């Protein structure tokens, strides 16, 4: 979709992808899954995303791994 909206050619995909993902994308950080229900979202270097419940063993592994960057869910308002 991004490529279509910006009229990119196949040759430009790699550079555009690097530029797009150079800045954090808030889509799941602003979701009720993370803000209200406490799910953890993990994304890897290939752009794959997984969602884990906070009671799961995998969630705990991600929380305690110092090599993984943690980013908090976004607030609903700036009260």
Provide a descriptive summary of the structure in words.
With 79 residues, the chain is of the alpha+beta class. It has a domain at 24-73. Helix content is 30%, strand content 10%. It has helices at residues 2-5, 13-20, 32-35, 57-64; strands at residues 40-43, 49-52. A two-stranded antiparallel ribbon has the order 1-2. A hairpin with a 5-residue loop joins β1 and β2 (49-52). The longest helix is centred in the N-terminal third of the chain and has 8 residues, at 13-20.
Kindly report how far apart the N and C termini lie.
Answer: 35 Å
Low-confidence region ranges: none
In terms of structural class, how would the helical and strand content be classed?
A: alpha+beta
Q: Can you summarize the main beta sheet? A: 2 strands, antiparallel
How are strands sequenced across the largest beta sheet?
A: 1-2
Order of helices and strands: HHHEEH
DSSP, total strands: 2
Q: Give the DSSP E fraction (strand runs of 2 or more residues).
A: 5-15%
Query: What count of helical segments does DSSP give?
Result: 4
Q: What is the share of helical residues?
A: 25-40%
Radius of gyration: 15 Å
Residue-averaged pLDDT: 84
